[in-house]
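User: Is it possible to get a 3D structure for a protein together with its bound compound? The compound here is flavin-adenine dinucleotide. I've pasted both below.
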Amino acid sequence: METSKNAAHDNPEEVIDTSKMTAGQRAALEMTEAARDAVAERASFAGGLFMGEFGLDQLLPFPEQDRSDRARGDEFVRGLEKFLGERTDPDAIDRDGEIPDDVIAELGRMGAFGIKVAPEYGGLGLSQTNYCRAAMLLGGWCGNLTALISAHQSIGVPQPLILFGTEEQKRKYLPRVAKGEISAFALTEQGVGSDPARMETHAEPSADGTHFILNGEKLWCTNGTKAGMLVVMAKTPPKIIAGRERRQVTAFIVETNWPGVEIVTRCRFMGLKALYNGVVRLHDVRVPRENIILGEGKGLKVALSTLNTGRLTLPAACTGLAKRCLEIVRKWANEREQWGAPIGKHAAIADKVARIAANTFAMEAMTFYTASLVDKDKKADIRLEAAMAKLWGTERAWEIVDATMQIRGGRGYETADSLRARGEEPVPVERMMRDCRINTIFEGSSEIMRLFLAREALDPHLKAGGPVLNSQLSLTERAGAALKAGLFYAKWYPRLWLPRLGLGGAAVLDPKLARHLRWAERASRRLARRLFHAMARFGPKLEREQVLLGRFVDIGTELFALTATCTRANGLMKDSGSRQEQENVLQLADYFCQIARLRVEELFRGVGHNADAAGYHTARMVLEGPVPTLNEGLMSHHAPLHPAHQPTRIAA
Ligand SMILES: Cc1cc2nc3c(=O)[nH]c(=O)nc-3n(C[C@H](O)[C@H](O)[C@H](O)COP(=O)(O)OP(=O)(O)OC[C@H]3O[C@@H](n4cnc5c(N)ncnc54)[C@H](O)[C@@H]3O)c2cc1C
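Assistant: Yes, that's possible. Here is the predicted structure of the complex:
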């Protein structure tokens, strides 16, 4: 599909007008643009949606895990389940803020730290789908154990080495991590959250060129206080590319027992109380050149590629959490009687139960579809699908845990220990809610996921039309670009109005599901048209219309969720035994499609009629000047930081 071509640009200014940006904005853009994958040709289902291409054949038939791969994962997943159930207590882990050493050691022995590492390097060599199954099991059980295992192998040393490591690096480090030596990923700094251009940690080559000398401080490094090795992102000397100086970020493997590595403090949070998360200080750390991953200056590509697959663990874990919530509400909504009936029979509660179930089904479908792409090709371009699964899965999971708390009423808000002390079942919704909140913030916050998806959605238009409006290019260049853009749009745009004759594969679907998919196909053409109209209206300024772009991204994401739901339901209906089971799956998928369609219609309405500009002005007013009434009744000053609150150092 030509429309989804996606090559990196050495010079992003060719397609994006950076002339009116601040230096900070330009730096951020240049870095992220330079790190975009150079994928010459791809046909991503999600990418196609924004161009009016509905590639249903990519999801139909739904790529369910094949039996032999499932059987390979079963032994590990069952062993993990038995171990978790018999030997771990998530409430105690939460209460103590510690994971017992013997639990970590046993997880290491069973291979939980090397699930995807190939057997030749001492790992289990399981597929991405089996890894997601393990993440789902963990996610429904204990957030702290999920984070320990996931930060280690989704973003820690194993994943970038599996993707980009040299044979020497793999032989040196993978057997260690597979045996249980913990690893971590260190990108964030005091001034660097979502914007790596502000990175201060830097690495200079030694005089003889054999080493890099690393200096800086990394914040919130999950597993940092337990890790034997870290992936550290650092600035390296800039390079001149296409006549301009470009900042460079490089990824290094750093062992924590090397001189100069210090774990300054352990950070504590609202949830994930047993997260081994710390501030890591690096002072003149000598890192051998062989420990660079992928190459000097390729650090952001390493980070972004690692996160593409890595962040898939989150929707998998969220699916587990959502299933656990469903288990809790099914029991409680049947058991608890108020006003003469089980609360599940009151429509307001029934509505929440139905939404939890339907959204959980869709979340699983998106996650396993995306995992199947990785299993077909480890280096598959899953950027859009993984980002959508992360964005949608973590936001729905938060809603689900919130609805679960509401359904449990006061008992939802009560801690498991307190419930136990009163002789009631210690249902840990309060803990689950605390642990769940971070998911929309880390590994790409929701706002950044929307920006990232919007950038990818706009890419074909930026390539076709961007140079025309780019004031940095010469008039001749812009005229040439206008001709090319005219030819492209003259062919592409009319197609968006033409009804399609059918959906091909949809013919084999249940009629209800086929109807939803036909609607989705039409909605994808409408999405492409509306996006194009917005491009025409705002020109290059569209990139700044974050709320509007967010609606386009959310529409595309809902369409992906709907399609994955229908095709997975179709597959399950063919495989399920009883007629009743088939009808139940159909009911779930049909209901999901109905609510997703309503959400999409609402989003389309918001594209045309919204209060975005007024909202922006209101925010500027509130941020820039006082509104006395909004300050009234508050404490007039807050206590300064007490000396006792200074960071506590802990031994490396
Ligand atoms: C428990 C925990 C564990 C973590 N583990 C790790 C780890 O292992 N390794 C690691 O490197 N980091 C880790 N982090 C850091 C985490 O990835 C960051 O918190 C995250 O990237 C967001 O950065 P920030 O908190 O500095 O927010 P900021 O980047 O300061 O953003 C603040 C808010 O502004 C929004 N925002 C920022 N830029 C834009 C924009 N351009 N447009 C619109 N909105 C924007 C954000 O979405 C967010 O809502 C962890 C953090 C926590 C809390």
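The chain has a mean pLDDT of 90. The CA atoms of residues 301 and 323 lie 34 Å apart.
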